[in-house]
Amino acid sequence: MKKIILMALLSALNIFNVSARKFYDSKSMIIGISGNLTELEEGGFSNKYFRNDIQLPAEALSTGKKYNKQKLLKAFERERTGKKILDMLFQYDGHSLSESLLKDRAFQNVQLMDEERAQIGVIDKETILREDYLPILESNYIFLTRTVNIGKSIGQLLVEDPEKDDRYRTYWIVFKVDITKDILEQVFNCWNDMNKYDQINVPIKYVASGCFKKTTAKTEEVRNLLARSVSQKVEAFAIRGQITDNHPLTVNIGGFNGVQQGDRMKIYRQKVNSKNEFSSVTIANTRAGYVSANSTRLFALSGQSSSYKKGDIAVIRLDRGIGHSLTYNLLSMEYETKYHGVSYTFDKRFAFNKHGISSYALGSIGLIMDKSEDIDIEFDHGIEYDDMPSIIDVGLGLGLGKTFFSRVEIMPYAMVHYLYALGEEDDYEDFTEAVRIPIGVKANVNILYPLQLTLGAEYNFMIQKEPEESWGDSEGAIYKGWGISAGLRVVF
Fold first, then answer.
1. Which residues contact 133 (CB under 8 A, 6 or more apart)?
2. Assuming Cys at both sites, which of 101, 233, 253, 406 could form a disulfide with 257, CB separation 3.0 to 4.6 Å?
3. 3-state secondary structure of 359
4. Which helix (H) or strand (E) holds 106?
5. For residues 219 and 144, what is the distance between their CA atoms, to the nearest angstrom?
6. C-alpha distances in Å from residue 435, one per residue of 289, 460, 461
7. What pTM does this model have?
8. Rounded distance, CA 264 to CA 288, Å?
9. How far is the C-alpha of 317 from the C-alpha of 315, rounded, in Å?
10. Strand partners, 64
């Protein structure tokens, strides 16, 4: 029986290693971790991983400002830490091996939600069990973290953070226990020969590391930030949960798990091909709106409708909240005078409320030119232009945005632009500077998210400074007009 189970595991591992596909199951965490587990638990990872209780080398517990990756890898090799984790997984007692721990961990993961998925025919129970066995073997990690006072002597490890002191930084590092198909074959070949089994070597590989400055005096919030920091660099530690409702769209993780209002969350759906290769494909992009302790209301940005019945998974994939647009613009002021130009617009989302509305800071720079080559333009205040000069147009403003039907973001905005003519003064002695105030709305239409088609329409007020006068002394001339724009936008 033991050999049959091991052969099944080897077969499954071969499938997954060949495909090397991204795969998220319906559980939030099914990995084994050794190291600073308390920090993860307080950060929202409790009950989402298996505890691998093994003795780590002294170097892993030593104090210091930053972790020395090479020093730790040498210590793991010296102490055979990878082999100790393999021993624990197969319950090696010096005389025999057992698969019962793997079986117990697999059955722990066959949760109610999985059973419901099996009942509605999404995935059968045998597939669920195989799905749960494999990650238990190949997803084992060592996680280390320490908080250091960078304002004092380097190397001082802190037990507790003093209130309101921003001199503290939290460092973390993650290693992976590299249990491969070859290692499992070795286990299979020496299942009844412990002398051979003792010769197996399990390497440990560096995965990622990072740090962040403490921005809060509350220990639980610091650990929450730790969970977010790790989740963006280590795929297996990604903060994720299952869609539990479609109306409104809800995921079963919240503030306790590190979710914050405005976080982008990608929705993944499981796929199984004819070769029994599992993968997770992105079907939608959403953003976290109302966040409670253990659940989050999501607002769709793009993609398909998400489904609880299909076992869809929401995974935090933080973005920068930045958009870059390049547009062609057509402006018309009084007397049907038309100008054209191009502009680059930068937008930064600085807030996202519980109703799904984004707040943006906007900035743009562009070039405006006369639409015709030879034209005389005369306004009622007597200023004439022969060959309108090229004008630099720089603007700042604010906007609001809300996405509808997972396809179109409607963004009303208001800006203030400063216009300055280029060239020699003799070419346009009656024009030097102006202020333009557009009030308008943009429609950002998904092409292939994050690439969008952006269309805009606006109403303009332009105040032109009188020639050879300062802004404080000039009464200025006020013109009104409209503008339209079209181009491409990319969001990050």
1. 8, 9, 12, 102, 106
2. 253
3. strand
4. helix 100-109
5. 17
6. 37, 10, 8
7. 0.77
8. 6
9. 6
10. none
Strands 204-213 and 240-246: unpaired
Q: How much is the CA Rg of the chain, to the nearest whole Å?
A: 30
Query: Which tokens go with 442?
Result: 């943009």
The phi, psi pair for 26, rounded to 5°, reads -80, -5
**DSSP assignment string, 143-202:** EEEEEEETTSSTTPBPSSPPTT-TTEEEEEEEEEE---HHHHHHHHHTTT-HHHHTT---
Q: Which amino acid makes up residue 160?
A: E
Cβ atoms of 399 and 367 within 8 Å: the answer is: no
Residue pair 72/64 in contact (Cβ under 8 Å)? The answer is: no
Task: Report the DSSP beta bridge partners of residue 120.
Answer: none
The answer to whether 323 and 364 are in contact (CB under 8 A) is no
Instruction: Read off the DSSP letter of residue 58.
Output: G
Amino acid at 230: V
Contact between 434 and 395 (Cβ < 8 Å): no
Please give the structure tokens belonging to residue 28: 């939030």
For residue 339, give Cα distances in angstroms to 194, 301, 364, 370.
84, 34, 17, 5
Q: Tokens at residue 276, please? A: 């029994």
The CA distance from 351 to 261, in Å, is 9
Phi, psi of 219 (to 5 degrees): -60, -40
Helix-strand-coil split of the chain, %, nearest 5: 25, 40, 35
The identity of residue 168, as a single letter, is Y
- Structure tokens belonging to residue 312: 């869809």
- Per-residue pLDDT tens, the chain, 492 aa: give them: 555 455 544 444 443 443 345 666 544 456 888 988 877 777 666 556 788 989 999 888 876 677 889 999 999 999 999 999 999 999 999 889 888 887 777 766 655 445 545 554 554 545 544 455 556 778 899 999 887 776 554 444 444 444 445 567 788 999 999 988 788 888 888 888 999 999 999 999 999 999 877 655 556 666 678 888 888 898 888 888 889 998 899 998 998 888 999 999 999 998 877 777 777 889 999 999 999 988 999 999 999 988 887 888 899 998 999 999 999 999 887 655 677 899 999 999 999 999 999 999 999 999 987 655 444 444 444 444 445 567 889 999 999 999 999 999 999 999 999 988 776 555 555 556 888 999 999 999 999 999 999 999 999 988 877 655 555 555 567 788 899 999 999 999
Residue with tokens 């080398």: 57
Nearest to residue 45, comparing CAs of 200, 212, 263, 256?
A: 256
